[in-house]
Amino acid sequence: MGIGKKSKNIGKITKGKTKESVGRVVGNESLEGKGRAQKMKGKVKQAVEKGKDAFRH
């Protein structure tokens, strides 16, 4: 996996966690849900990239 894609995916996961936490603290369910979705999207992309690496080697 390229370092650029890896850091981009990790950034999405981190942003998602932050949005989820902020949404929970301020009581904004919409923001919390968006954060949860963004976090899962980053995790899925990370898994796909790891799978690609497994087939390359």
Q: What is the H/E order? A: HH
Beta-strand percent range: under 5%
Number of strands: 0
Roughly what percent helix? Answer: over 70%
SSE class? mainly alpha
Shape assignment: elongated
Which whole number gives the mean pLDDT? 90
Number of helices: 2
Largest sheet: none
In the predicted model, the low-confidence regions spanning at least 5 consecutive residues are none
The rounded distance between the terminal residues' Cα atoms is 11 Å
What's the Cα radius of gyration? 13 Å
Walkthrough of the structure:
- This protein is an all-alpha fold and 57 residues long.
- It is 91% helix and 0% strand.
- The chain has two helices and no strands.
- α1 packs antiparallel against α2.
- The protein is elongated, with a radius of gyration of 13 Å.
- The mean pLDDT is 90.
Please describe the structure with a list of short key phrases separated by commas or semicolons.
mainly alpha, 2 helices
